[in-house]
Amino acid sequence: MSRNDSQKILDLTVKIILHDIARHPNRFKQMQLDELFRYIKIMQSTIQKTSGIECTFRNAINFQTIEALTVNAMEGCYIAMRHGGQESKYIAELDLDNETAKIIQMRSLHNISDKITEHSAIEFIATMIIFKYLKDKFNIQFHIYSSHNQRALQPAFALAKLLEISCEHNPALDCVNYPDENIISNKQLKLILDKGTLPWKKAAVDCVCGAGTFDRICQSMRQAFDIRLLGQKQVHLMFTHTQQINAICEAQKQSVTRFDYYGLVGLNASSHVFLYDQGFYQNITMATLLKQSKFSDAKTDNQVSPDQNPKFKAKL
Q: Mean pLDDT lowest for which of 38-42, 108-112, 155-159, 312-316?
């Protein structure tokens, strides 16, 4: 493996799934939730083995979230999803404290170009498969938009490729940049920031990112969630960042909280707000373990295990 193979992980995932669908055109159309869970587990395991990555990742799927999102997607909805985890191996080599490391990551050089981590790419496999399931089984039509930041653009493009649609850049979704140190020093920034993160307060946002930034983000996100433009079975999916998600949550009278990677907030055609700050994942409980163990052990006639098929034994 090279320094960061997250893109190869995403590309391989798309290749394997599309190859599987070419052989089994009704794969997702006939799939039930227990089969969906098994398919996700098999795919994540296959990709992890093939890529040789040793890492832990979230793998407890929240089926209630899938069921609820299906209802919202059938009606038509907007979704804003937080980006994947930002690569930080180079930060570790600098031996910096966490706060300074976060500041460096948020300056334009790294903020725009840093890829997602390899384990974040593996986590995104579940999200990719779930959206493909919604598209094929329920004929949901997706429209994908992204910021220009790689940690949003990478997963957005991978999903668009899997769904066989385009991905459009929307500048309103771009992450804010922290100013370079010759403009505002690390010491000065630390007086404004909260452990390296930007508080969702007008004074703080405008001080760090420039006057008018807070209002601009709020206005652009209100425009992005215009329910008058929604149609049935139309999902407008936006890959974006914490400040934009904060603006959406505040506008929809939801508490402003920092989402986990791939966490999402949405609004359907009936103005119903839905929020899943962990995305399609959930915290592990004994009940969850028992339920998912049952799903994992389920065997079906039409379920093929990609890791048992030699045609899927691709190498990065």
A: 312-316
3 state SS of 139:
coil
| Range with lowest mean pLDDT among 7-11, 143-147, 228-232, 280-284 | 280-284
The candidate with the shortest Cα–Cα distance to 147, out of 84, 189, 225, 100, is: 84
CA distance 208 to 194: 12
Average pLDDT, rounded, for the chain: 89
Beta strand 264-268 with 77-82: parallel, antiparallel or unpaired? antiparallel
Residue 21 belongs to what H/E stretch? helix 6-23
Domains, the chain, in order of start with CATH, read 63-281 (3.40.50.1240)
- Collapsing DSSP to helix, strand or coil, 273 comes out as strand
Which of 247, 184, 248, 176 has its CA nearest to residue 209?
176
The pair of structure tokens assigned to 64 is 């209630």
The three-state secondary structure class of 172 is: helix
Structure tokens at 86: 């930002």
Average confidence (pLDDT) over 222-250: 96
Strands (E), 28-160: 77-82, 141-146
| Full-model pTM | 0.89
d(CA 67, CA 45): 24
The region, left, alpha or beta by phi > 0 then psi within -120 to 50, assigned to residue 233 is: left
